Amino acid sequence: MHAFNYHRPSNVNDAAAQAVKSEAKILAGGQSLVQAMKLRLAAPTDLVDLGMIKDLAGIKVDAKTVTIGAMTRHADVAGSAEVKKAIPALAALVGMIGDRQVRNMGTLGGSLANNDPAADYPAAVLGLNATITTTKGTHPADKFFKGLYETAIKPGEIITSVSFPVPKRAAYMKFKNQASRFAIVGVFVADTGAGVRVAVTGAAPCVLRLAEFEKALAAKFAPDSVANLKVKPDGLNSDLHASAEYRAHLITVMAKRAVEAALK
Asked: What is the CATH number of the domain that holds 184?
C-alpha cells in the first residue's frame, strides 16, 4: 500500500471539498477500495473517510418509497423490519451480499459508486427504477450506470441517499460464485403496477435491463412467459467462472425463478 493523506470530515460539504482533489478517493465501507490499495491497484494521494458523517446513514419508509442513506450498512438494510415489509425483495437481495463481515462494513453508496459488474445492489437500483441523490443533484437509475466500474458520478460528487419506489411485487435470484458470493448472474424482476423491469447483474461489464423479458412479463407476469426466451452471448462476460454462453443460459433460468418467487 502506498502512502496517502487521510481525511475524516464531519459533514458532506467538507467531504466534497476534499474529494475534488484529482487523486483523492472516497472511503465508504472500504470493502473494495482498501483491498485494491493493498494490492497497489489503487494509489490515491488522499483518502476521504465518510464514516463520521451521521446524516448519510439511515432508513426512511413511507407508503410509496424506501429511502436509504448512502452510508447505511448492508446488514442494517437486510435486517430492517420496515424494508422487509415494504420491499422484501430488496432486503433479501442485500442479505445475499458477501459474508457477515462484508455486510457489516459495506455500504449502499460505496457499492453503487464502485459499480462492480457482479455486485448485487445495482440490480435492485435498476430493477426498481430507483433515484440516486448526490451532493450535486439526482440521477435516475437508467442513466446512472455507464460501464465497467463507471457511473454518472463526477469528481467531488458524493452519493447521499437512494430512493426505491415500492413495487407491486418483486424478487431477486442469484447464481453465485461459491467463494466470493458475487453474482455470476443475478436477475431482479419488479412489477411496478405500471410496467415490468428486469435487471441483470454479473453477466455483462455493467448491470443492464432486458427489454424482451420486460415486454413478455408485461403481457403476462408468469414464469412461462420467459422460460423459453433466449439471450445472445454477444458482449457477455466470459472468464474462469463461466463462459458467455453459460451466463446467457443462466439469465433465463434466474429470470424464471425470480418471477416464480415474486408470485409467492
From this structure: 3.30.390.50
Asked if residue 52 lies in contact with residue 10, where contact means CB atoms within 8 angstroms, the answer is: yes
Residue in this structure with the C-alpha cell 460505496, named with its chain if needed? 110
pLDDT at 121: 98
Q: Which domain holds residue 43?
A: 5-165
Weakest mean pLDDT among 6-20, 77-91, 197-211, 250-264: 6-20
DSSP string covering 140-200? EHHHHEEETTEESPPTT--EEEEEEEPPSEEEEEEEE-TTT--EEEEEEEEE-SS-EEEEE
Q: Which residue has the cell 414464469?
A: 223
Instruction: List alpha helices for 100-220, DSSP H.
Output: 100-105, 108-114, 121-127, 141-144, 211-219
